[in-house]
What we know:
The complex is a heterodimer.
Chain A: H1 38-49, E1 70-76, E2 79-85, H2 91-98, E3 117-120, E4 123-126, E5 139-141, H3 154-161, H4 171-186, H5 207-213, H6 224-235
Parallel strand pairs in A: 1-5
Antiparallel strand pairs in A: 1-2, 3-4, 3-5
Helix pairs in contact in A: 3-6
Chain B: E1 5-8, H1 12-19, E2 25-28, H2 34-40, E3 47-50, E4 59-61, E5 67-70, H3 75-79, H4 82-87, H5 89-97, H6 101-106, H7 109-114, H8 120-123, H9 166-172, E6 176-181, E7 184-189, H10 190-193, E8 212-218, E9 227-232, E10 243-252, E11 255-264, E12 271-272, H11 274-280, H12 287-297, H13 309-325
Parallel strand pairs in B: 1-3, 2-3
Antiparallel strand pairs in B: 4-5, 5-8, 6-7, 6-8, 9-10, 10-11, 11-12
Helix pairs in contact in B: 5-9, 11-12, 12-13
Amino acid sequence: MKKRGCKPHSLPDNSGSNAEDGAPESDNKGSRNWDMTRREFVASAGIVTGGFAVGFPVHAVAGPIGENSASLAITINSQAHELSIDPRVTLLDLLRENLNLTGTKKGCDHGQCGACTVLVNGRRINSCLSLAVVHDGDDIKTIEGFAEGKELHPLQAAFLEYDGLQCGYCTPGQICSASALLDEHKRGDASVVTPDLRSAGPADLTSDEIRERMSGNICRCGAYPGIVAAIQSVRTNSVEPRVKG
Amino acid sequence: MNPFTYERVHEPELAIDSIIKPGSSKFLAGGTNLIDLMKNGVERPDRLVDINRLNLATIESLPDGGLRLGALARNADTANDPLVRQKYPLLSRSILSGASPQLRNLATNGGNLLQRTRCPYFMDPGFAKCNKRDYGSGCGALEGFNRSHAIFGASERCIATHPSDMCVALAALEAKIRVRGRKGERTIPFADFHRLPGETPQIDTTLQRDELILSIDLPASPYADHSHYLKVRDRASYEFALVSVAVGLELEEDQIRSARIALGGVAHKPWRCDETERGLVGKKMSKELFEAAGEQAVSGARTYQYNKFKVEMASRAVAQALSVAGGFA
């Protein structure tokens, strides 16, 4: 069995254990049935050892830290949470490290890749560049909130149907982003490739429009044609025959 | 990220009280630039004053026909506001040219004005030299990789450029910045808001320490019918400008009554081309006129080892943007 109970990599480690032991991190919710996942340990260790974390990079601190803790009431995928957190914790780290919602991915951690995209009160944002404490009272939706039980969200189904992914790392961000794109388009938001900004109403959602509106989500596998086709199919509520070859 | 004290304020007066407390303090709005810089250790404030709950997010008409953009209105909401799109499509297009939808949903108008240069020598403390980050350490870009750097208004201390697209349009539209400090409100003309580096490149703007941006006020504009924002960059989207240009033309048939031209990506602040604008007044539009205007706009440019291409690029961008605005292209 792979080693799981390790100290967070952001804290001084005198035990000789290695937090990054190379074990693939399962995002399967079934992993919660284990005695204690690495993340749960990380989160609990943060509470116990949090006092030592001041001055170190904060990735995995769940508990209040000294005098700097801030309270946060936040709803995530329809579930309310009341938390006390270090104000340095980003929304991304709160989701992944504290709440075990590891569907949202950390790519660049600098707002350049879009892997961390989530919906805040229905708007897509980069969760890596937003402190969690700012979101007191907000309603967050992550990729874990898309499927209805075993029923995939239409965008999830379309990404599968049109090969809108290869390795899948950017996919949660792509799907959150695409979901917001469709809402933005429906209400008439323009993009820089919209020919006439002065005319109201939804622009013709061409491939160029989709590409521009999805430009905040990088896919290093280059699954862009599939992503565009998947979004197009959900918008038109149709499954077009796939291009062969 | 360094430890800091977090405060959330609900009134502008309390925001100002907090920002002047001892130690280094920063207002936190969208955070898209500030949090990034804090992660890199470029910014290390003792206190963050969260101003997101201040009532400064509205966009409303002004009695003189202008428009008031709340400092905390998000870039995305500003670009898509019906009044902005109708009366200032130049501003909409410039905002939509920058960053990504996710970032524009977070970033605020006030924060856009205050964003810092993306000069790599500034952004990465691994570089020893940067007068903007560590005053007195020198300028790493001067003799370094300066492809993205300034061709106007730089100094030996700093050759960084201002990264904003929105600000280039605001310069062309002659916006005014309304701010509040301990002594009350004042209004700063856009041209006076951002500074050239001179001897003190660590100071980006003329905003004082106790001052909070309340709004960006746009005067009534005769340029809505004929304006264009052209951005030239290394990739088609989600990239900073190598060169950008905001133009507005007020026309009487083919004749130019007045013109506005501002360049981005070429200086420490949005670079207004007043002389070129004056040279267009009263002239009949033509391809040759616009090409000459482009050449005139870049006269006086000073280049460094890797950014010589920007001169011709800026010249052609001005000619092209004028052509689009005038209905030629």
